[in-house]
Amino acid sequence: MKLSLTEIGTRAKAAEQPLRTLGRTAKDAALLKAAEELVAKSDMLLAANAQDIRKGEENGMKPGMIDRLRLTPERIAGMAEGLTQLAAMEDPIGEVIGMKRRPNGLLIGQQRVPLGVIGIIYESRPNVTADAFGLCFKAGNAVILKGGSDALLSNIAIVQVIRDALAACNVTPDAIQLIEDTSRETTTEFMKMNGYVDVLIPRGGAGLIKAVVKNSTVPVIETGTGNCHIYVDESADLQMAVDIIFNAKTQRIGVCNACESLVVHEKILDALLPALKARLDEKQVELRGDEAVCRTIPDVKEATEEDWGTEYLDYILSIKTVASLDEAIAHINRYNTGHSEAIITQDYANAQRFLNEIDAAAVYVNASTRFTDGFEFGFGAEIGISTQKLHARGPMGLTALTSTKYIIYGNGQVRP
Amino acid sequence: MKLSLTEIGTRAKAAEQPLRTLGRTAKDAALLKAAEELVAKSDMLLAANAQDIRKGEENGMKPGMIDRLRLTPERIAGMAEGLTQLAAMEDPIGEVIGMKRRPNGLLIGQQRVPLGVIGIIYESRPNVTADAFGLCFKAGNAVILKGGSDALLSNIAIVQVIRDALAACNVTPDAIQLIEDTSRETTTEFMKMNGYVDVLIPRGGAGLIKAVVKNSTVPVIETGTGNCHIYVDESADLQMAVDIIFNAKTQRIGVCNACESLVVHEKILDALLPALKARLDEKQVELRGDEAVCRTIPDVKEATEEDWGTEYLDYILSIKTVASLDEAIAHINRYNTGHSEAIITQDYANAQRFLNEIDAAAVYVNASTRFTDGFEFGFGAEIGISTQKLHARGPMGLTALTSTKYIIYGNGQVRP
């Protein structure tokens, strides 16, 4: 039965209060039960997914997209493993921060509380359904999911398994709801559900994110595209530079924390580029450089203005020459997307200036940009990487899915 | 000369980098200079303000509005004093939080940084111009102000004095800019300046805030209306209850943290209401109660459904009877606006349950809701009180005007 958006919102709101007071023991038991049931009901999930795949193939969906859409026993086990890991993590809810006594005797602190109702808009990976639920639920939130129409039957099946598991644990199944109407109108309406939804998190490509930011009246956490730079300073250890650039560019290319553009101090162009090119040639990385770069090494395409602003997500790297750290910082602050930026340097002052002056979610000295990730940062799980400055910036773990409220203990205080 | 919004946005963006690296000494010197100049140029400010007042009177503006609009030597001294106090406060920028070493040797922490460019949309109080600038500037941000058209000449004069003071201190005057075109079209366009403005904070009545939330594509921090409740538990100290209610209702009526609605346990209606009414009669507070309340004391108007949801900002108090704490919590979570809620009780378990289960920015035990305020909480200054859950909730001091970025110290780490 398809529910209207208002019905879905009303149910999610009604789930807020019981979820707010659900203790860790009950939450972890429900997560483990959901993990167990996803594996136990693999056949049902695979059958639903097979229908989505068949429809995708009939519609001429590209193999890469079909692969994203596909569930396998291993991927289902992966979803279950994600929920199991969340059950092992500390409960972020209830912690009280910075409690202090005021001169009038009031004791004031901030208690960590759930956000309430979180909306997630995503594309065709059905595993996001279980992952997003797990994170939102562990942080005490109700989640409303709007997945891609390609994965609808898979998502319906996954959500049903999780809802049944919750009900079996006496937890409100409305902790997870799926919007089954995947029309554009309904999606736009979903973005305007102020009063029902506390925050929307889009997960997907740049087009999806832009549409959500533009149309939403509910607060949005923008997760992001990454036009990530590495700046190789005059004083860099060149072998370290080559190793880090090779890693950041080629270790995995289709991800937001991959390096897309290199900025090189003019004094080390000659020393760096031949060795770097030789290394990147192992993976057939196409280089696009400015004039100085083209003069220094062969087989480099001339970079256009457009290249400096492009997130390739491919075996392509742009290279810009600069005469100073100032110029490097100005270039990076102009073209970056607020994701991850790195400097390779042996110079103390330059390292500190880069850390202080670059405007991005994660700024590195002498390390690969590929580390910007919830697991690598030690959060254990991640709902996405925020490239905005409000609320959460960088990899978002459980804490990013919480709010705080002030709690105040008095003994009759009135305001004079 | 009126600048276009794009020019204003471009100048604010250009100011970000120098403001990001401005140290505390330079910021405080500029704040003190601005304070000094506002007082030194009082005559000019008063003359500009007199023109706004004259226009307001010609247009039949109400006396209350004229009073909000009016500058006096005392109010100018107050603005200067606000800037002077900010100069004495610690700089929030640069602090590094939670720095930890990962197993691979990376040292990862969060550095507090400015948000960037903050937009403030407000109504006719010209003192907001200096206050908002001071807070944004101390936190390292550029501010773009859009004040009410009634106060335009006053705002132009105040902004000019501050810009001159900044320039005299070799600080970019574009740290503060005023949108002089106060048309509705320009205001709406201002709300869509993604890429130029990092956050918008509306300051004013419910209508203004609603319009900003609805039309803005830039992230908004909703500051708020307060339909604040006090729940008098069965076990309350009745004298304390009367004192707190009297304070929260009448100490100042036109403010968002004033008490608008009382929730009373049915078992103490008889004991509480006559004494309470006698006390509130001192200020001629009109009572609107449910049936049980009307039966208990005379001269009570019957409350309608609308009363439960109304922020009166007046000498009016609604009173609802409940049979249990559960019912009280459900009523308050249904009708509150996420601002400030209090319980009066001597019961330990009820106090803890109320603190945990009420969904609001500030939840009190045995104290007046009137304390929800940046000064009272010890923040020293306040840009407003957030009633949303994202980024900042409750009174917003300097920290609410900052973001963080991850800084990572490595020594050649690459991702395996």
Verbal overview:
- The structure is a homodimer of 416-residue chains.
- Chain A is built from 15 helices and 16 strands.
- Chain A has 416 residues and is of the alpha/beta class.
- The first copy, chain A, folds into two domains: 235 residues, 3-Layer(aba) Sandwich (Aldehyde Dehydrogenase, Chain A, domain 1), CATH 3.40.605.10; 144 residues, 3-Layer(aba) Sandwich (Aldehyde Dehydrogenase, Chain A, domain 2).
- Chain A has a seven-stranded parallel beta sheet.
- In chain A, a hairpin with a 7-residue loop joins strand 14 and strand 15.
- Chain A is globular.
- The interface between A and B is large, with 72 and 72 residues.
CATH topology of the largest domain in chain A: Aldehyde Dehydrogenase, Chain A, domain 1
Percent range of helical residues of chain A: 40-55%
Largest interface: A-B, 72 and 72 residues
Rg over CA atoms of chain A: 24 Å
Strand order of the largest sheet of chain A: 10-9-11-8-7-12-13
Tell me the CATH superfamily of the largest domain in chain A: Aldehyde Dehydrogenase, Chain A, domain 1
* Net shape of chain A: globular
Q: Multimeric state of these chains?
A: homodimer
| Helix count, DSSP H or I runs of 4 or more residues of chain A | 15
**Tally of DSSP β-strands of chain A:** 16
What's the N-to-C terminus distance of chain A? 57 Å
The level 1 CATH classification of the largest domain in chain A is: Alpha Beta
User: How much of the sequence of chain A is in beta strands?
Assistant: 15-25%
CATH architecture of the largest domain in chain A: 3-Layer(aba) Sandwich
Give the biggest sheet of chain A.
7 strands, parallel
